[in-house]
């Protein structure tokens, strides 16, 4: 119902701008506890716990990497009922990704083509988002509205910078592992994106 109302408005924007608008709207709920509570109430999902890799997911439906590349709205996304949220792909240093336009709608297929190519604000920025320095208000504390829900498993998707030669990619991945191991329930290494030249060559045997 809500999508039918919002769809014409969002389709007035190009696909990438519509994506960013939704992302920043979710980010905004993180600073308005009543809005966050309302979102959680509307999107409340049944508990169907799944245990895998030593982690317990409150349900088997998660958000894949690519939607929130820089961990801007982890708390807002958590309110939508996901069992896990994977942020990224994160690169060690900031990079801009591919030239625009790079996201294309396929309305008849209800699908989107993504050719973004690892745009990332870099690991230092993302770490800061995952470990907020702001104090939690009494309202947030009373209602459990911390920076991130403890019942939503957080994953971080890791990628090398496009200017890093494949021979040195391991250094990028090691740096990212050290940066995010303390903040994530699991880490995923991205060597499959077709939008980064030469990346899939890393899938071969050493």
General description of the model:
It is a single chain. The relative contact order is 0.15. This protein is α/β, with parallel strands linked by helices and 206 residues long. Helix content is 31%, strand content 16%. Strands 3-4-7-8 form a 4-stranded parallel β-sheet. It has 7 helices and 8 strands, in the order αααβββαβββααβαβ. Mean pLDDT is 82; it is low at 133-148. A hairpin with a 4-residue loop joins strand 5 and strand 6. The protein has a single domain (2-203), classed as Aldolase class I (TIM Barrel, Alpha-Beta Barrel), CATH 3.20.20. The chain is globular.
Number of DSSP helical runs: 7
| Relative strand content | 15-25%
Strand order across the largest sheet? 3-4-7-8
CATH superfamily: Aldolase class I
Biggest sheet, open or closed, and with what strands and sense?
Answer: 4 strands, parallel
- The radius of gyration over CA amounts to 18 Å
- CATH topology tier name: TIM Barrel
Entry summary:
The protein has one domain: TIM Barrel, CATH 3.20.20. The chain starts with a helix and ends in a 17-residue tail after the last strand.
Structure characteristics:
TIM Barrel; 206 residues; single chain; alpha/beta; two-stranded antiparallel sheet; 7 helices; 4-stranded parallel sheet; 31% helix
């Amino acid at each position: 119902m809500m999508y039918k109302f919002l769809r014409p408005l969002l389709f007035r924007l190009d696909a990438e701008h519509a994506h960013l608008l939704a992302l920043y709207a979710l980010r905004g709920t993180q600073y308005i506890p009543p809005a966050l509570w309302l979102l959680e109430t509307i999107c409340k999902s049944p508990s169907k716990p799944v245990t895998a890799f030593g982690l317990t997911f409150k349900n088997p439906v998660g958000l894949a990497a690519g939607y929130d590349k820089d961990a801007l709205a982890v708390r807002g996304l958590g309110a939508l009922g996901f069992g896990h949220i994977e942020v990224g792909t994160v690169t060690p240093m900031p990079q801009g990704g591919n030239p625009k336009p790079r996201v294309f709608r396929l309305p008849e297929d209800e699908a989107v083509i993504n050719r973004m190519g690892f745009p990332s604000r870099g690991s230092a920025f993302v770490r800061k988002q995952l470990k907020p320095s702001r104090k939690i208000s009494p309202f947030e504390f009373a209602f459990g509205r911390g920076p991130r829900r403890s019942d939503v498993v957080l994953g971080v998707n890791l990628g090398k910078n496009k200017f890093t030669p494949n021979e040195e990619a391991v250094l990028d991945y090691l740096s990212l592992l050290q940066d995010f191991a303390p903040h994530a329930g699991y880490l995923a290494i991205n060597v499959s994106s077709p939008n980064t030249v030469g990346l899939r060559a890393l899938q071969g045997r050493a």
